[in-house]
Design brief:
Layout (H helix, E strand, L loop, with lengths): L1 E5 L4 H10 L3 E5 L9 H10 L5 E7 L3 H9 L5 E5 L10 E7 L12 E6 L25 E3 L8 H5 L5 E4 L4 E2 L2 E2 L1 H13 L1
Parallel strand pairs: 1-2, 1-8, 2-3, 3-4, 4-5, 5-6, 6-7, 7-8
Antiparallel strand pairs: 9-10
Helix pairs in contact: 1-5
């Protein structure tokens, strides 16, 4: 099972994901509590194990801005939150905040990501959604997000996602935790 740790902000976070040998590292490049600037993203990318793919997370940013970043070498994949979705020069992930099955729309992206919905927020919330809404989904390979942590990761993996996507589920006091990252990485490796 592949694993994405999202919301990396510090070199220490990169050290943690390198040690855990995760598959994807997410950089939030849009207004959010985990947002980093491009200079920080480049620094983190340069410290990351080259086997780990970087994902740039965007919420309704312009096509020109996202394309420029995608072509800069800082990110390997684009993740779209919000209402915008563009053809990109790299693989793309379309995020859906799931309240009901009808929230899942057709997409031209390579992957989808299922996340929780919370009114008044844009992007991830750290909360769970009703996983029954995606049971049996097989249109595209999908990333499973939304409140996943060590206590429910095995239940999430039973839905047969392409990858598990975790941010706040591996944090302690608002910062990434090596212990928690290692725990979820172990579960993904033995699955």
């Amino acid at each position: 099972m592949k694993l994405k740790i999202c919301g990396l902000k510090r070199l220490q976070d990169v050290d943690y994901v390198n040690r855990a040998e995760v598959d994807y590292a997410g950089f939030v490049l849009t207004p959010h509590r985990l947002q980093i600037d491009l200079e920080t993203a480049r620094l983190l990318k340069n410290a990351l194990d080259p086997k780990i793919k970087t994902v740039g997370v965007f919420i309704d940013e312009s096509y020109a801005d996202i394309k420029s970043i995608a072509e800069s070498g800082i990110i390997d994949l684009v993740q779209f939150h919000g209402s915008c979705e563009y053809a990109m020069p790299c693989p793309a992930i379309r995020a859906f905040r799931v309240r009901t099955r009808s929230d899942i729309k057709p997409t031209n992206c390579d992957f989808v990501l299922f996340d929780s919905f919370q009114k008044g927020t844009r992007g991830s919330t750290g909360g769970m959604f009703d996983w029954r809404h995606i049971d049996g989904y097989n249109d595209k390979p999908f990333f499973m997000a939304g409140g996943i942590n060590i206590s429910n990761i095995r239940a999430a993996m039973r839905l047969n996602p392409y990858a598990i996507d975790i941010s706040s589920g591996v944090e302690e006091n608002g910062e990434k935790s090596l212990k928690k990252i290692m725990e979820v990485a172990y579960e993904c490796k033995i699955w």
